[in-house]
Amino acid sequence: MKTASPITSPSPSAFPAVWLRDNCPCPECRDPRNDQKLFGVTDLDPRIEVVEIDGTTVTFSDGHVVRFDPAWLAAHALDGTVPDDRAEDAKRLWAVLPPPEGSWSRCLSDPSHLLECLDTVLHTGFVLLRGVPAEPGRVLEVAAVLGYVRETNYGRLFDVRVEATPVNLAFTGLPIGPHTDNPYRDPVPTVQLLHCLSNAVAGGESGFVDGFHAAALLRAEDPAAFELLARTPVTFRYGDANTELTATRPMIGLDPLGRIREVRFNNRSLRPVRLPYERTEAFYAAYRAFAEILARPGLQVNVRLGPGDCVVFDNTRILHARTGFAETGERHLQGCYADLDGLAGNLAVLRRRQAVVEHLRELFEGPGAADYLGEEVTQAAHMLQTAACAVRDGAAPGLVAAALLHDVGHFTGEITGHDLMGGTDNRHSHVGADWLGRWFGPEVTEPVRLHVAAKRYLCAVESSYYDLLSEASRYTLGVQGGPMGAEEVAGFEAEPYARDAVRLRRWDDEAKEPGRVVAGFDEYAALLHRLVR
Prior knowledge:
The chain is α+β, with helices and mostly antiparallel strands.
């Protein structure tokens, strides 16, 4: 069986000196809290050179020395690629497909499911969330979880239902063909949400078309028409008594590399084109060709939204439509707009958090599966039992996480737990807290940092506590400094997280029972997701 070739990292020598210096990751050059550069390009020496390379450690002619992460260098290789998650080659184009669905309740309780739904919107173009309570205003809650609400002249929230004096054809029972919303805005809202509160009419089905796929078909079938629509700016307008909005853009927007990046298509809002006579005829031929592709029955996904359904879609890519319906029945949708940058940002954060959780899972399944320093349980079983005690006693989420992760320092530091049993203090509480501090706040790290000190503290202030310790814990107590003196006791009691550390310590002592059945790591994944910074 063939195995995948390992990913090799390019040497720093594969990058120009000025590029390496500009991308120095050290805290002198980048704020570690947000990764923003602390200097401008004109601050760089234009004659900067690399004077030495030792592995991935680079010494520059200005005396600066930095080590680059090999994985980071591999991810930023100078291979000419220009990644853009908004362009067509980052999308899953489709002709017709079952509507991708998600569960609103799962989005709220399971970060992995929310991640899947956001990824579906970004790459497939839309998702149908089931089970959003059919109550006014709930669509804003969905938008807030996905990103940020974009307020427009329609407000933060708008109603889609029949109105006596409609300011938009959407507020009638008339059929509406495939279109994108708000093409008259600059910038256009890039995400739209429609939440069904009621739908008791005949008709009123919603349809969705992948505009990128349709544009790609036009490019393949009629390259001249595609080129004309991609290179011809047209003006869209909306106006009422209090509003006047116009934007001029091509119907098919391309990025500098010629990739499809945006579709604006809305016949209701298109203003008269002002091209030379011959080009006007050619434009209308191209416009019609695109419209006919968009109207092909095999390209449209039709859905009858029911109460509690909320569809979320990319308004720069997905065209939506509606069949006509009788205006005597009740059909009420509420909608709002958001933007892809917020959605993509939340998706990136969820992925980052998921990577942290998966790394922790690997520790539990790998080093954590080993024996626990003279006890009759594994290290992972001990930490899971500790977390179970915290849950049983109603501990706050941060303290539950601290209980779950309190002993990771035994296998994340240079001095192992086996060295501790050999008589060398591995300071695993501090090592673990510092390691976890890359991702978690003090509500997690500080009880971990203090849990060994808490053992020494309890031995000093409770005469019966020492007798509760296991034989291995009594041994390590001596290696770790023994019971505290009076001055140390006072210092410990002044620590902000001392009380949490003492609770953690008591659960730690209780969590060494062979064969005890407790929840596994998966039960804590969502909690850890929420706590990762």
